[in-house]
Amino acid sequence: MAGCVARRALAVGSRWWSRSLTGVRGPRPLCASGGAGAFPPAATTTTRRHLSSRNRPEGKVLETVGVFEVPKQNGKYETGQLFLHSVFGYRGVVLFPWQARLYDRDVASAAPEKAENPAGHGSKEVKGKTHTYYQVLIDARDCPHISQRSQTEAVTFLANHDDSRALYAIPGLDYVSHEDILPYTSTDQVPIQHELFDRFLLYDQTKAPPFVARETLRAWQEKNHPWLELSDVHRETTENIRVTVIPFYMGMREAQNSHVYWWRYCIRLENLDSDVVQLRERHWRIFSLSGTLETVRGRGVVGREPVLSKEQPAFQYSSHVSLQASSGHMWGTFRFERPDGSHFDVRIPPFSLESNKDEKTPPSGLHW
């Protein structure tokens, strides 16, 4: 129907992003608001960010942030592209893309490019397809409002041998799938507040987008490539709960005359239904090439038992695993509870833990 308005609301903690677009033929204004949380009228084409009434500053008015662009159906976003995250609602900027292999157990690939058949869940073969992800910076102003839905210190590295910490993190660094990018433009020369923004990007009004990579960003990407690289993504849906897993190799450490290999894995849980569910338990099976099989059970994940609802459908977190072997597999289930007290298990897609055998030395501190 001509003039039909598509409207989407994104709940992020106590903060709301509301999008109201007509046809997406051209750019639409993007504004920030401290309004009372009601959605804009159906006739409007303005995108607003709303704070809930319990967190609303008195007298807050609309403040222009930028102008929406038409999302790209084909091709990649360039370094310096500003965006809103379509699920978690934060403002961010693209640093550089990664070409990953997506193994989606819900979709049969008609033209397989690569196949995997890891341990767990029987012998179902999954075909991989190329999918674009982006390394991005998160605006520090939005971090407090997404911390209950997505970790803002999820990208971790092994610390120095002489460091008392086992791991360290870079705050406000994330990986975002191409379809989660809602691009926009801004006239602000520093539109994203992050300590690395000025260090990595340079404003150039002759370019589109007007933020180009400094040599610092190129050098950082090259030196840390083995520990940042996103190569495989695994996805599976059970009873309308979609689980996406992205494993990362972190490096090897020597401990008590043996080698210990480390990985981090990022997991995103999405409720594709309107029914409210709550994660209660996790059950992992961890197989090591050395021949060991470990079972891990526990309440929730990272100390939380997130509720997935229509208003807040997603939760994302990262964790770590170490093996005394250069490779292995992980798989398992999450147990969810319905409002009536009944439970159901959601499969975690099996994924491989592979080391970069050519890279014997993990990063010692942050390379610039």
Automatic annotation (TrEMBL):
Ranges for the region named Disordered are 35-56
All copies of domain ApaG, residue ranges? 235-360
Alphabetical list of Pfam families matching this protein: DUF525, YccV-like
Name a GO CC annotation attached to this entry: mitochondrial nucleoid
Report which residue ranges the record marks as coiled coil. Answer: none
Where does the UniProt entry say this protein principally localizes?
A: mitochondrion
Which GO terms label this protein's molecular function in UniProt?
DNA binding
Q: Entry's PROSITE patterns?
A: APAG
Where it sits in the cell: the answer is:
Mitochondrion matrix; Nucleus
| Keywords of the record | DNA damage, DNA repair, Mitochondrion, Nucleus, Phosphoprotein, Transit peptide
GO biological-process terms attached to the record = DNA repair; error-free translesion synthesis
**What does this protein's UniProt record list under function?**
Involved in DNA damage tolerance by regulating translesion synthesis (TLS) of templates carrying DNA damage lesions such as 8oxoG and abasic sites. May act by stimulating activity of DNA polymerases involved in TLS, such as PRIMPOL and polymerase delta (POLD1).
Q: Which PANTHER family match?
A: F-BOX ONLY PROTEIN 3, POLYMERASE DELTA-INTERACTING PROTEIN 2
Quaternary structure note: Interacts with PCNA and POLD2. Interacts with SSBP1. Interacts with PRIMPOL; leading to enhance DNA polymerase activity of PRIMPOL. Interacts with POLH. Interacts with POLD1; leading to stimulate DNA polymerase activity of POLD1.
**Protein name as annotated:** Polymerase delta-interacting protein 2
What organism is listed for this UniProt entry? Odobenus rosmarus divergens
Gene encoding this polypeptide? POLDIP2
